[in-house]
Specification:
By secondary structure, the chain is α+β, with helices and mostly antiparallel strands. It folds into two domains: about 5-70 and about 180-340, Zn peptidases (Aminopeptidase, 3-Layer(aba) Sandwich); about 70-165, Peptidase M42, domain 2 (Elongation Factor Tu (Ef-tu), domain 3), CATH 2.40.30. It has seven helices and 19 strands. The strands form three sheets. Strands 1, 2, 3, 12, 13, 14, 15, 16, 17 and 18 form a ten-stranded mixed beta sheet that branches. A six-stranded antiparallel β-barrel has the order 4-5-8-7-6-9. Strand 4 (about 70-80) and strand 5 form a beta hairpin. The longest helix is centred in the middle third of the chain and has 18 residues, at about 185-200. The protein is globular and about 65 Å long.
C-alpha cells in the first residue's frame, strides 16, 4: 500500500468516528492506538490535545498540527411534541444540515438516531417549505423513537447539553474524489498520521525535531492555545484549503495560505512552504482566505513565540458536505515531506 493510499484509509476511518468539538474522547483513543502502533512517545494533555514526539533534532523544533474536532450540535431544549431544538457547535448555516441523519449521545452513554428537518418539511402540507427561514427556531431533530411528549424524550435519558453528531456520508469514488462531512480537518489529521509512518520508516531525513499535535477545540477558536512544547519555534496548521471565487485553490492541489482573517502568516514560513511545493513538483496554490482562522493563529494569539503557517488540501463546500481529490491529499503529503528535509 502506498503512503497516499494509507492516508486516504486513515481519513476515511477518522471521518466515521463522531467528534463534535468537546466530544473527542473516542477519536483520541483511536489516535492514541495508532501512535502506539507506530512506536512514538506521546502526551495527552489536560485540554485533550494529543502531542506526538517524532524525534530527530534536539532544538528549534517544528510542530505540525491538525484538529479532529468537527462541527456538530447540542440539544438546546426538548419541545412539548418530543422533538429537539438544537444549538450549533461551530460555524455553519442551518441549511447545511437540513435533512441530515444524526446521532444524539446522552451522558449515560446511550445513542439515539434521528433526522434534522425544518419544521415545515412537507410540500403537500405547507406552502413555505422552500422559503421558511432556516434558523434555530425552525430546524429540529426528529428522533427515530416513538415519542410524543417532552416526558417521553426525557425517559430515554436525553437532556439539554447532549451532543448531536451528523452522519458523515463518506464516499471515495473510482475517479479519486473523496466526499464527506468533516474533511475539515480529518483530511489533515489523516495526512499527519501517515507522515508519522513515513518518518518511522526512514523514508525522509528531517532536519529538525518534529512534533505532531491533534487538537479538540479548533472549531470554536482555541484548539492550539495551550500545550505546545517549550522547544517549538515554528507551528504549521495542516487544515483545509478552501475553494471558491477569487481564489486559485482547487480540489487537486495543496493550498499555501498567505493570509486569512487572523492576519498574515509568517513571511519566512510561507516562502519556505512555497519553495518546498516547487521542489516537490506538486500542484499548489497560494491563497488568501477572507473568513478563516486556524490553530496556528490560535497559538500566536495565545502568546507563543513561534513562526506560523497554514497549508491544506483544497476542499470544496467547506463546513458543508465537503469534497476533495486524492491528488490534493498526495500533494499535501509530498509538500510536508520536502519541507521537513529543508534547512
Amino acid at each position: 500500500m502506498s503512503y497516499v493510499q494509507e492516508a486516504i484509509g486513515k481519513i476515511i476511518d477518522l471521518c466515521e468516528i463522531p467528534s463534535p468539538t468537546g466530544f473527542t474522547n473516542r477519536i483520541m483513543n483511536y489516535l492514541i492506538n495508532e501512535v502506539r502502533k507506530l512506536g512514538f512517545r506521546y502526551e495527552y494533555t489536560n485540554k485533550k490535545s494529543l502531542i506526538v514526539d517524532l524525534g530527530h533534532g534536539d532544538s528549534n523544533a517544528i510542530l505540525l498540527m491538525a484538529h479532529v474536532d468537527t462541527l456538530g450540535a447540542m440539544v438546546r431544549s426538548i419541545k412539548p411534541n418530543g422533538r429537539l431544538k438544537l444549538t450549533r457547535i461551530g460555524g455553519y448555516p442551518f441549511s447545511h444540515i437540513e435533512n441530515e441523519n444524526c446521532i444524539v449521545f446522552t451522558r449515560d452513554n446511550k445513542a439515539y438516531t434521528g433526522t434534522i428537518y425544518n419544521i415545515h418539511p412537507s410540500v403537500h402540507v405547507y406552502n413555505d417549505t422552500g422559503t421558511i427561514e432556516r434558523n434555530e427556531n425552525n430546524v429540529e431533530v426528529v428522533l427515530d423513537q416513538k415519542v410524543y411528549s417532552k416526558e417521553d424524550v426525557e425517559n430515554l435519558g436525553i437532556r439539554p447539553g447532549d451532543y448531536i453528531a451528523f452522519e458523515p456520508r463518506t464516499v471515495l469514488t473510482r475517479t479519486g474524489f473523496l466526499k464527506s462531512r468533516f474533511l475539515d480537518d480529518k483530511a489533515g489529521a489523516g495526512i499527519l498520521l501517515t507522515l508519522a509512518k513515513v518518518i518511522r520508516d526512514f523514508t525522509i531525513e528531517p532536519k529538525r525535531k518534529i512534533y505532531i499535535m491533534f487538537t479538540s477545540y479548533e472549531e470554536v477558536g482555541h484548539g492550539a492555545s495551550s500545550g505546545i512544547p517549550d522547544d517549538v519555534t515554528e507551528v504549521i496548521a495542516v487544515d483545509m484549503g478552501a475553494v471558491g471565487d477569487d481564489l486559485d485553490s482547487d480540489v487537486y492541489s495543496v493550498s499555501v495560505c498567505a493570509k486569512d482573517s487572523s492576519g498574515p502568516y509568517d513571511y519566512d514560513v510561507v516562502g519556505k512552504l512555497i519553495r518546498a511545493a516547487e521542489l516537490s513538483k506538486v500542484n499548489f496554490t497560494v491563497d488568501i482566505y477572507p473568513y478563516y482562522s486556524s490553530d496556528a493563529s490560535a497559538a500566536v494569539r495565545a502568546g507563543y513565540n513561534v513562526k506560523h503557517g497554514l497549508i491544506g488540501p483544497g476542499i470544496y463546500a467547506s463546513h458543508g458536505y465537503e469534497r476533495t481529490h486524492v491528488d490534493a491529499i498526495e500533494a499535501t503529503l509530498k509538500l510536508l515531506q520536502k519541507y521537513l528535509e529543508l534547512e
